[in-house]
Recover the amino acids of this structure.
């Protein structure tokens, strides 16, 4: 099925370890996003990308890095895992024909990665 | 800074009841507003998307309205069913600090009792 695919679904990390959360979309969406969701806190934007080779910080970027070498993939890197990064991470994508005019077709979310740092 | 508030935080109703979920946002300069559904341990499923120029959208038993000038949206669910039990999230898409962002409310957790 077309959509946003995230891997892994679950992961436990030790403090100081690093990992990459994978995200792929096959809808030819130009925009891609990474959010984290903490209980009772809603979703917070970590990083986003408006196209291949272009990334920008969101609301809570510290401790994370991203890259966007192709339209399809938008991996999120955690370099030195900390307990504060325990969360559920969602990748999303959208299409905006004219940047600045919003995503006319709405947003598609992946099923999430549940990360625990111990 | 755009802030999105959803009221109530939780709602429990008997099956068959019609209900309204509320969403408010502080900055009316939005491109669109989207309602999502999230089941426990799952991702977000888009329900309805309302562009800033629209007043409402309908899909089956769901109807979402948008009053951009007052910064409000409502999601109306008709004839609720136990399968409607989930958390409903409202999100607005707007430009902030020179960048485009989707800002979420914290959600309304709906329980429909058989």
């Amino acid at each position: 099925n077309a959509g946003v695919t995230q891997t892994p679904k679950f992961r436990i990390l030790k403090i100081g370890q690093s990992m990459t959360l994978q995200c792929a979309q096959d809808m030819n969406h130009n925009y891609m996003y990474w959010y984290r969701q903490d209980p009772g806190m809603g979703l917070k934007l970590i990083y986003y990308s408006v196209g291949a080779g272009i990334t920008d910080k969101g609301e809570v970027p510290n401790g994370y890095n991203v890259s966007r070498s192709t339209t399809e993939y938008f991996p999120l890197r955690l370099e030195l895992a900390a307990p504060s990064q325990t969360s559920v991470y969602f990748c999303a994508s959208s299409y905006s024909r004219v940047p600045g005019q919003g995503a006319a077709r709405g947003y598609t979310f992946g099923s999430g990665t549940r990360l625990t740092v111990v | 800074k755009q802030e999105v508030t959803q009221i109530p935080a939780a709602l429990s109703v008997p099956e068959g009841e019609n209900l309204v979920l509320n969403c408010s946002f502080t900055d009316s300069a939005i491109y669109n507003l989207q309602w999502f559904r999230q089941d426990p341990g799952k991702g977000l499923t888009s329900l309805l998307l309302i562009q800033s120029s629209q007043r409402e959208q309908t899909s089956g038993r769901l109807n979402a309205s948008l009053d951009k000038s007052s910064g409000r949206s409502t999601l109306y669910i008709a004839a609720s069913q136990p399968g409607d039990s989930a958390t409903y999230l409202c999100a607005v898409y707007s430009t902030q600090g020179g960048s485009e962002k989707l800002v979420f409310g914290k959600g309304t957790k709906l329980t429909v009792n058989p």
